[in-house]
Amino acid sequence: MKNNYDKIYYDITKLDMPIIKELGLVRSRKASSLPWHTNSGYELTFAYSGEFIWEVDKGSHRELLQLTGGVLGLTPPKTLHRGYDSLIAPGQLLFIVFDPLDKNAEKGLSLNKEELLHFSQLWQRIERGTAPVDSQTKSSCNLLASLLKNSLSDKVGLLAICAIRTAILQVLLSALTCFLDPIEMKDNAAIRLACKFMEENYSENLSIDEIARSAGFGKSRFYELFTQEMGQSPGDYFSQIRCRKALALLRETKLSVTDISFDCGYSSSQYFAAIVRKYTGYSPMQYRQHISDKTGIKSSYGKRIPPSPNSGRLSI
């Protein structure tokens, strides 16, 4: 196990489970780099908290997959993808890379060859990139994450490894059901109303009471429902919306950092800089240069451009 504070990679050689290629947790309080890469198998991710956005290269276009708390993500084998702008924002994420076509895939999996073939065929049918989780899948993911955290201890024995193998199978089987038969999220319409309200009023200093009223709820009940469904507080979600709007202006205009900070509702350019660094790992000017270096295209607008109503929204 390697622990560099932000990421925990489990030593999969201990599992003796050839189907598993990578396994671990991301627990980050700050942005980190995730450039273009591929995986040798399917990459299944579960977001506990925060928001993770993947750019997936589809050849003729790029697809954006948005994972908030309580959502599964899937990228197929050998699919080029990265974090949005080659970055991932703070949050907690479980990841499993697995290859059901490995010649020894049934070893340690408790599936015979016929069952494994069916298992593999079902995963190949999945085209959706994200799926909400049911209570069983969430419990399975929580159990596996807890076992991985406990495995950092020097006192971990053979039974703990057996428990991790069992938990992996439970996660894969329950996640498969979530993708093949997606559930309807409870109170989704109300949460969508609140999200839309935050997007339309990102430059205002909204209170939780105001956001809750926009969805037709009292503060306490709304906070509970929003956090349960989105995996983060309304305040954190609003902060991410505001930051995405600001980053779009940094990318697409020549507005000064001070102008952008006040246009997006930040109390000072210093506070704005701290938020940008939290979500990107760069200062505002460094982020602007990072985008310029990455694309080879410098902003040439030279005038104030109002943000698009959907500039912070992703179509999944």
What's the number of structural domains? 2
Per DSSP E runs of 2 or more residues, the count of β-strands stands at: 11
> N-to-C SSE series?
EEEEEEEEEEHEHHHHHHHHH
How many separate helices?
A: 10
At CATH level 3, the topology of the largest domain is: Jelly Rolls
What is the CATH homologous superfamily assignment of the largest domain? Answer: Jelly Rolls
Provide structural commentary.
- The protein has 316 residues and is an alpha+beta fold.
- It has two domains: 2-180, Jelly Rolls, CATH 2.60.120.10; 190-295, Arc Repressor Mutant, subunit A.
- Helix content is 42%, strand content 19%.
- It contains ten helices and eleven strands.
- The protein has helices at 113-125, 135-150, 158-180, 188-200, 208-214, 219-230, 234-252, 257-263, 269-280, 284-295, and strands spanning 2-3, 7-9, 20-28, 32-33, 42-57, 62-68, 71-75, 81-83, 87-88, 91-98, 130-132.
- Strands 1, 2, 3, 5, 6, 7, 8, 10 and 11 form a nine-stranded antiparallel beta sheet that branches. The protein has a two-stranded antiparallel sheet with strand order 4-9.
- Strand 1 and strand 2 (7-9) form a beta hairpin.
- The longest helix is centred in the middle third of the chain and has 23 residues, at 158-180.
- The two termini are 34 Å apart.
- The model is unreliable at 1-5 and 295-316 (pLDDT under 50).
Question: What are the main properties of this structure?
Answer:
11 strands, 10 helices, Jelly Rolls, 316 residues, disordered C terminus, Arc Repressor Mutant, subunit A, two-stranded antiparallel sheet
